[in-house]
Amino acid sequence: MQIHVVENYEKMSELAANYFAEVISEKPNCVIGLATGSTPVGMYSLLGKKCTEEGLDFSEVRSVNLDEYYPISPENEQSYRYFMNKNLFDKTNIDKANTNVPDGTAKDVDAFCREYEAKIDAMGGIDIQILGIGRNGHIGFNEPDSYLVPFTHLTALTESTIEANSRFFESEADVPKHALTMGIQSVFKARRIVILASGADKAEAVRDMLKGNISTACPASLLCLHPDVIFICDKDAYSLV
Ligand code: GLP
Known about the structure:
Strand order of the largest sheet: 1-10-9-6-2-3-5
Strand content: 15-25%
CATH class: Alpha Beta
Largest sheet: 7 strands, parallel
Number of domains: 1
Bound molecules: 2-amino-2-deoxy-6-O-phosphono-alpha-D-glucopyranose
Order of helices and strands: EHEHEEHEHEEHEHEHE
Shape: globular
């Protein structure tokens, strides 16, 4: 794992946006793997600027998102589809038909998960994947557990994640208790992974990822086994390493 410790959130976002811009310039029809949460917002805003001000062309870019709450409608302002439209897709010239976010309204969940996984394969896999890290070390919605489901699946959120994500909802009771998420194996199909962490509330998760054993108790620690991972974090997130 390549590690970059930078001064602050802005520097982290800048470096991450540059990695993505490089891949998009080199391979205009690349597949980018996307994440939600507050961490990649700065990077998405920079990519939007690169598109509108510097001519970075998203017209052929394809994207696949890690996860989505379940059940949730794409029109719901708390849905990850809504988040992606607002924070990235509407700021670039990406063709929405080329963007994929798990379907929070899917009726047959097993069939949906199989199809999502097959779609990623049919696209030729992911060229570059962005990840955030949960306070408990989760990636996507792969929560710490004694075992992990490798491929796209429906999962129950832990209390700690429900509490952490309640800041985006009116109350904790409004946070969906389930989500559809790509599994660790789906994430590992990415040729390159860029993982970001910012702020002191991520310091324990970062320590466990880098200094603990590789364990499903900290899903992010499994990333140490992937051959091309770039970890970019600010000083606060790195403070316990
Ligand atoms: C959410 C998302 C993750 C994200 C994490 C951290 O639960 N499913 O993909 O990385 O929480 O979020 P934040 O960046 O807001 O700290």
